[in-house]
Amino acid sequence: MTDALALTRALTAVDTVGHDETAALDTVAPLLEEAGFRTEVFEHEPGRGTLVAEWETGHEVPPLCLSGHVDTVPLGGAPWQRDPFAGEIDGDRLYGRGVSDMKAGVAAIVTAAVTVARSRPRRSGLRLVLTAAEETGSQGARFVAGRWGSATRSGPLIITEPTANAALLGHKGALWLQARAAGVTAHGSMPHLGHNAVVTLARAVSRLAEHRFDVEPHPVMGSPTLNVGTFSGGLNTNSVPDRAIATVDVRTVAGQDHARLLAALSGIAGDGVEVTPLVDLPPVWTDPDDEWAASASAVVREVTGASAEVATATYFTDASVLTPALGGVPTLICGPGQPEQAHVTDEWCSLTRLAESVEILTRLCGGWCGI
Fold this sequence. Notes:
Layout: H1 4-12, H2 21-34, E1 38-45, E2 48-55, E3 64-69, E4 89-90, E5 93-95, H3 99-116, E6 126-131, H4 139-145, E7 157-159, E8 168-171, E9 173-182, H5 197-209, E10 225-233, E11 243-252, H6 258-269, E12 273-281, E13 284-285, H7 291-304, E14 311-313, H8 319-325, E15 331-333, E16 348-350, H9 351-369
Parallel strand pairs: 3-6, 3-7, 7-15, 8-14
Antiparallel strand pairs: 1-2, 2-6, 4-5, 5-16, 8-13, 9-11, 9-12, 10-11
Helix pairs in contact: 1-2, 1-3, 3-9, 7-9
């Protein structure tokens, strides 16, 4: 029997801060293969693999898809009180980089899938997509989705990002932009002979920061947001800067079109400023009245005792890529990690939530497969 705690600790022991996802996937692939899954790893860069595992997917009803990422963010500058790769346990908490975001969620997927695979499905099978490079823009998911054709059939999608096992029916989109201004350099004592790129860009990002989106708030997601994240320009104090760059983080809601939004923000930035996308991941939204979404949310409530509140995430997930690639399937985001623990020093995950997640996923997989 697969042990979700032991598997989380084994995944945590592999440093996947922007590399070596394939090594982490080597931990789970043999367990899935032994349970009858066909597995294949797709590397978009050497060592940076995404695992696709399929079990009994030839049924008339398309397979339930479950997904999580194995890459993690850097440790940060602050010292850790716990070894970030040891998987230390203290009471109900398991510590380590990525335990909440989201190696516990991946371990829960594999544990539930192996448990269900011990039975023969009457209705459908399962597809697991365990990805690389989600944290930097879902490159692993994009690489795999680019290999799927229109013949790829799928049932609903479950993403086990950290929600403390709350059932979320979508998330905001992410449109990260780079704004660049070019100028003409000159001596700092004769600025009239140059053109100041920093001043041009500063005025542009001030206009962007003050922009008010012309859309109604989404009933669950709320309103879109815009944040100017970085700004740099110039090389020395006594020269007119001929180059300046800023980055902007826009979070969108269901119904917004990113191409139209990019054109509008480029117009606001104005002449002399080039605006280009760095990350372009659309929002994800599932109608709470969807039959599967409603039944899946009910299972979550039965296991956790949570309320029936409809909610979404502010952060993005690989669902931005996988949901449209799989035909716009109903999507549930529900995982054992603590959302407020994502990316923090001395990150931890609740062992109680991990056990709950395995129970939720086992029920959802078994119900879809007719077991």
